[in-house]
Amino acid sequence: MSSFEFPWQRMAAGANLLSPTGSLGVTIFEEITNLAVKHQAINLGQGFPDTDGPQVFKDIAARGVSGDLNQYAPGAGIPALRQAISDHQKRFYDLDVNPANEVVVTTGATEAIAAAILAFVNPGDEVITFEPFYDSYGAAIGLAGGTHKTVALNAPDFQPDIEALRSAFSERTRLVVLNNPHNPTGTTFGKKLLAEIVALAMAHDCIIISDEVYEHLTFGVSHIPIATLPGAWDRTLTISSTGKTFSFTGWKVGWATGPAELVAAVRSVKQFLSYSSGTAFQPAVAEALAADTGFFSDFANDLGERSEVLAQGLEAAGMTVYRPQGTYFIVADVAPLGFDNALELARQMPEMIGVAGIPLSVFCHEDGAERTRTLMRFAFCKKRELLTEASQRLSKLVARHGA
Ligand code: PMP
Ligand code: GLN
């Protein structure tokens, strides 16, 4: 256990916002976005699209606001949305989810993650994540007083070493938190690895939390929800949200699905974090989830093409590029340009060349930060012209360094 005086400090430290000497930062996303705004840089840092999702869904939300959808929604979510989430899990993954008690709607995936971790982690329990890890996992584990154990994902393919994964489990392991497709590396996890995780979770009797917010954003590979594997459903909470799939990151409507007793636990905690959220958005999200299958595949294909535009730009700028299989993000190594610290470079880049990116080290503990020291994450959920312009600006990094 840490030596911090208050839970909030453990939470901030869990997401690398609080140094041992006590200085407090904001999230790296906020820090870099602020720098991008200040220097009018192209923001390939924080993961949000520069084009909103379809107008038809916005219109539904707008009608809700100008009509009568302005009071609390039911705590678990409006019935139409819970049904739509259930239908979506059936249509895409052949999963049977009871909308009455196996779904809870949350304030974004962030709340579902926090509620799930707070629901199940006692002080001193161990929670395993891969590393780099999305910042909110470390924050929620810290708040719960858990011990955060990590398993490294290393370039070039960002797949874990199975022996390292096995040895991360112990009799104290309570949860394993998975993010597939994976932010920030853009990797995806295949059936063999997922089956190994299920087997380990069964052997150590722990719960799996699977954050699948990028479930529809894969390029040339199919997403496999871990809950579809034999033996997994009973111990898995699957989390997703509206933000990434439909390009509405500001709506903050998310959900968790799983067996009734796990969902009831999440709902119990969620009730006292937000109670309910986004009444007017919920019918719009229900409609979006029912969109034609072509909507989902067209968006993924288009996004995959844009990832390639940026990949080529980063390569032309002299970086080593690790092409993603999914998500909004691409990882590139700035070492070939002569930079040995991506965190320092990320703080300078908005002013230096007018482009912002996120260093991978901020998604890591100390050892992982060292391993990822020269890696930078760039978001490609932007218009092609912007990605091309960003690539041109990035090519100046060579000139600057060589100057
Ligand atoms: N998990 C991951 C891996 C993410 O990248 C994000 C950012 N969208 C979230 C969770 C949070 O999702 P939301 O905005 O729906 O809270
Ligand atoms: N998920 C977004 C990203 O990884 C950030 C969301 C946030 O700012 N918390 O860029």
TrEMBL record:
InterPro entries: Aminotransferase_I/II_large, Kynurenine-oxoglutarate_AT, PyrdxlP-dep_Trfase, PyrdxlP-dep_Trfase_major, PyrdxlP-dep_Trfase_small. This is Class I and II aminotransferase. It holds the Pfam family Aminotran_1_2. It comes from Paeniglutamicibacter gangotriensis Lz1y. Signal peptide: none annotated. The lineage of its organism: Bacteria, Bacillati, Actinomycetota, Actinomycetes, Micrococcales. One of its GO terms (molecular function) is pyridoxal phosphate binding. Residues 41-390 form the Aminotransferase class I/classII large domain. Belongs to the class-I pyridoxal-phosphate-dependent aminotransferase family. Keywords: Aminotransferase, Pyridoxal phosphate, Transferase. One of its GO terms (cellular component) is cytoplasm. Its cofactor is pyridoxal 5'-phosphate.
